[in-house]
Amino acid sequence: MILQFDSTILLWIQDVVRNPVLDVIFKFFTHLGDNGYFWIGLSLILCIPKKTRKAGIFALLALLFSVIVNNAILKNVIGRIRPYEIIAGLECIIKHAHDASFPSGHTGSSFAAATVFLKKFPKKFSIPLLVMAILISVSRLYVGIHYPTDVIAGAITGTALGILACLLGDFLIKKFREKKPDTCDKIFANEEKTPAIEAEKE
Question: For FRET with 95, which of 35, 73, 121, 169 sits at 20 to 30 Å CA-CA?
Fold first, then answer.
């Protein structure tokens, strides 16, 4: 039942949606998510200014969680074979992967980071990053390297891990600020003293 659902969608994308222009676009987005480099680079840049440092660190934490949960644990435990090896007639238009299929690591890392940014940044900045995460995720279906259920699972785990990273990060910083408030204020922007930053999110 699940395989039929996945197969129908992937073959429809291949037979109806694929064209030379979209091939270029979606290959770009799928490679943008390779190894999480885009999200890691963005997070590292955000770690530089004090005002955005918390979001950058939380995003890196979320990406680490995604690697552990999605790539190291779930892929190896479930061991799902890639769709182009199972679905008759499906062609993968990028280099074949050597790891398991479920869940989508690209999707997991993209949604993990994007969830952090949604929680920590104003919508005018966070919504475009969420769109980027969605495009990277959809690209995995377009190029034929993941099943739809891989991508759905990656989005769910990534979102959950992004929320977890924010909760854990806020808890640890709160404890740090209670013990060493002056040192903490030198490292992170004190949102309690700058309510305008929070107001921008509305």
Answer: 73
Question: Under a CB-based contact definition with an 8 Å cutoff, are residues 150 and 140 in contact?
Answer: yes
Quick: pLDDT tens for 123-142. Answer: 999 999 999 999 999 999 99
Q: Give the C-alpha separation, 189 to 184, whole Å.
A: 8
Going from the N-terminus, what domains does the chain have, and what CATH number goes with each? 2-92+99-172 (1.10.606.20)
Q: Which two tokens stand for residue 26?
A: 């979606």
The 10s digit of each residue's pLDDT in 47-60 is 999 999 999 999 99
Alpha-carbon distance of 37 to 45, in angstroms, equals: 12
- Token readout for 134 is 């969605």
Distance (Å, whole) CA 134 – CA 91: 22
Q: What is residue 1's predicted lDDT score, i.e. its pLDDT?
A: 85
User: Model-level pTM?
Assistant: 0.91
Residues 92-122 pLDDT 10s: 999 999 999 999 999 999 999 999 999 999 9
Backbone angles phi, psi at 74, to 5 degrees: -60, -45
